[in-house]
Design brief:
The chain has 268 residues and is α/β, with parallel strands linked by helices. The chain is built from eleven helices and ten strands. 46% of the residues lie in helices and 16% in strands. It has a six-stranded parallel beta sheet with strand order 4-3-1-2-9-10, sandwiched between helices.
């Protein structure tokens, strides 16, 4: 049994959808979350810069004594996961591969849609991950940048969200896909709206949930699970604006965010 916390980081607030799934799948595990809110978004930055930022986040979490790290950011996972796994002696997973594996498992038509931020879509990360599994898959990609502010405003079940989703997704629905990867940590908040637009025949893949399941398997296989049945502790750190993080974070987690501290990530 290992009582050390799990570390999770993201470029901002969206990674809390991954934290929410980890809380559900691993209810006894303590979690330390870092949101790099001063430097969000990562999607518009170079691979070298994102890797530098990711390494700083990892070093911060290591200082807190974590036993495993989840890169809860699609851009950071695509840009720096391999380098991080080679550079740090701690289990590290990202969010891209779990979503890709699940999409390939659930598709029956071999046609998969990917929706994400402009940075994630242009990175080609999901195409590479899926083609490593099956290079015959027909992929349709669509950037849906307005989903992020809609989620952060808490408007995910409004007419604004539905109209935006229809504008983004109707062409994807008509393309013949039967699986759709929500390749942004904000998008699971809009899952009901997205499903309403694309229909129940298209399977929605939530990489946040799939990542939590991969994490569970990883800590079990490495003897890292905390099996002590007690209330877990959650601590949140940000690089800027803890007040906004607390307010928006409660919408993401569907529970109070009690403890948020601002830190200087540049020291790491």
């Amino acid at each position: 049994m290992d009582r050390r916390p799990i570390g999770v980081f993201d470029s901002g607030i969206g990674g809390l959808t991954v934290v929410k799934e980890i809380m559900d799948v691993l209810p006894y595990e303590d979690i330390i979350y870092f949101g790099d809110t001063a430097r969000v978004p990562y999607g518009s930055k170079s691979k070298e810069t994102v890797t530098k930022f990711s390494f700083q986040c990892i070093r911060f979490l290591l200082e807190k004594g974590v036993k495993a790290i989840v890169i809860a950011c699609n851009t950071a996972s695509a840009s720096s996961l391999d380098a991080a796994q080679q550079s740090f002696d701690i289990p590290i997973i990202g969010v891209v591969d779990p979503g890709a594996v699940t999409a390939c498992k659930v598709t029956k038509t071999n046609k998969i849609g990917i929706i994400g931020t402009e940075g994630t879509v242009s990175s080609g990360a999901y195409e590479k991950a899926i083609y490593r599994i099956d290079n015959t898959v027909d992929m349709q990609l669509k950037a849906c940048p307005l989903f992020v502010p809609i989620a952060e405003e808490g408007w995910q079940d409004t007419d604004i969200a539905k109209l935006t989703a229809r504008r983004y997704l109707l062409d994807l629905k008509d393309s013949g896909i039967d699986a759709l990867v929500m390749a942004c940590t904000h998008y699971p908040l809009l899952e009901n709206t997205i499903e309403e637009v694309v229909g129940k025949d298209i399977r929605l893949v939530n990489p946040a949930y799939e990542t939590a399941k991969v994490l569970e398997l990883m800590i079990n296989s490495n003897g890292l699970k905390n099996e002590n049945p007690r209330e877990a502790e959650y601590r949140y750190y940000v690089s800027d604006n803890p007040v906004k993080f607390k307010k928006v974070g409660e919408n993401f987690l569907h529970k109070p965010v009690g403890w948020v501290q601002k830190i200087d990530i540049e020291k790491y």
